[in-house]
Amino acid sequence: MIESLLFPYRRQHLPWLRPGARVLFLNAQEAPELKDLSVVAVQPRYDLAAPLLERGCEVQAGVEPSQAARFDTVWLLPGKDQQETQYWLAQAVMASKTGGTLVAAAPNNAGGKRLKNLFEKLGLAPSEESKNKARVVFATVDAGWNRSQAAQWRERGQEQAVMAGTIISRPGLHSWDKADAGSELLARHLPRDLGGAVADFGCGWGYLSLCAAKQAPHIQNLTVVDVDARAVRLAEKNIHRQYPSLPVHAVWTDLTRPDVQLGPFEVILLNPPFHLGTRAVPALGQVLITAAARMLAPAGRLYLVANRHLPYEKTLQTRFSQVELVTEEGGFKVMVCRR
After folding, report:
1. Among residues 97, 132, 157, which one ends one of the domains?
2. CA dist., res. 193 & res. 205, Å (int)
């Protein structure tokens, strides 16, 4: 998406940034063009934040209130969730100086076709270009932008109570306002004898951790791990709200990195993602299974749920001494695997 985002500059529809210009890059990705720019990168995902940190960029998990109206240019690579995209756009106009430039790019099949309309709802006069099956939209943030619309979008995209007020979550996370169907199935088959150190890999807002804490009173501590800093924060918050005496260790990291070592854990809960953006990547789940095997204690157990068609059995049989199919229902399979 970087190439699409920069397309207006390459076509000279926008002048390249002057020396010293302050740039805010929302949902940022690493790019060579960042090298000589004064960029504040906002990226809650560890896998995307790490290359930015290695380049020496200033990286934040979110926009700070003190950064309102401070930036000459704001770049945005929105996700596929419309409510999250509206939140990012609200943050973008609020962070821009009057007369600043806002540029956003997204794939056509992940919200790109609606970007121009969203700019217009904010009271901007956007231009639009197509590049690499994506849309890039750009506009000057004049003084008359629609502040009430931006405030509404920002409010709707923040942390909020969902599921009859029992959970705090936010748009942009997977299954952000309801329990994931696969995780629900796994939760129904968790035994009461879970105990010791338990980890929830890819925790999201904490559904499986909460179910485990309810089902198994002998859990000594929970470690919640996610690539998204927002998810880790919410999982920790939700567990503390319902189980204030249960020790929780929140870890923001990328479990696919071979240098990450946590544990050892007696139990790991895993509903592995198999998409990166809009692309299906089954190998992602295989890497997470390998990481789980590495971080289990001797005789530790992995409780796994996955779509039935995903090819995890060979990896499981290679990494574990016992692999048991617990159930197959509704297109999912639940397995328990022992070291």
Report:
1. 157
2. 24
Q: How far apart are CA 15 and CA 304, in angstroms?
A: 51
d(CA 180, CA 239): 17
Position of tokens 């209130």?
65
Query: Do the Cβ atoms of 51 and 66 come closer than 8 Å?
Result: no
pLDDT, one tens digit per residue, over 199-255 is 999 999 999 999 999 999 999 999 999 999 999 999 999 999 999 999 999 999 999
319: left (phi over 0), alpha (psi -120 to 50) or beta: alpha
Q: pLDDT tens digits, residue range 142-183?
A: 999 999 999 999 999 999 999 999 999 999 999 999 999 999
pTM of the model: 0.93
Residue 163 one-letter amino acid: M
What span, in angstroms and rounded, lies between the C-alpha atoms of 248 and 236? 7
Both 140 and 189 in a single domain?
A: no
User: CATH number, domain at 230?
Assistant: 3.40.50.150
Nearest-angstrom CA–CA distance, 180 and 209? 13
Q: Kindly state whether residues 39 and 114 are assigned to the same domain.
A: yes
3-state DSSP call for residue 89?
helix
